[in-house]
Amino acid sequence: MIKKLHQMGVKSGHMYTAGLASIGLAFASWILSKKAESAGLDRADRWGIFVGEWAPTFFAMGVALRMEETHRDLEEPSVGMFEQESTRSRSHAGV
Predict the structure, then answer these.
(1) Spatial separation of the C-alpha atoms in residues 71 and 20, rounded to whole Å
(2) Mean pLDDT calculated for residue range 64-71
(3) What is the structure's pLDDT at 12?
(4) Which of 37, 40, 61, 84 is most buried, by CB atoms within 10 Å?
(5) What number of helices (H) and strands (E) belong to the chain?
(6) Residue 51 near residue 26 (C-beta atoms within 8 A)
(7) Cα separations (Å) of 34 from 18, 21, 40, 52, 54?
């Protein structure tokens, strides 16, 4: 699932942002439920906890995506400084 998310372009930063937004949304839903509904504090607590439970999942997925990003970066062949120099010297040698 993580590999598929990575292929779809989802980055670890997106998941970290979703985790932080979830924390803010949990607090907002608790406040709104407490003030707007007449069901009382128990119901507000349940709403806040329900939404707040999403945050660890988003953060865990962010860590998994970070590992996938790092793993992919290590697998891709990178052009080093010395390879670039030899390519440049060959292209300028014919000039």
Answers:
(1) 25
(2) 90
(3) 92
(4) 61
(5) 5, 0
(6) yes
(7) 24, 20, 6, 16, 20
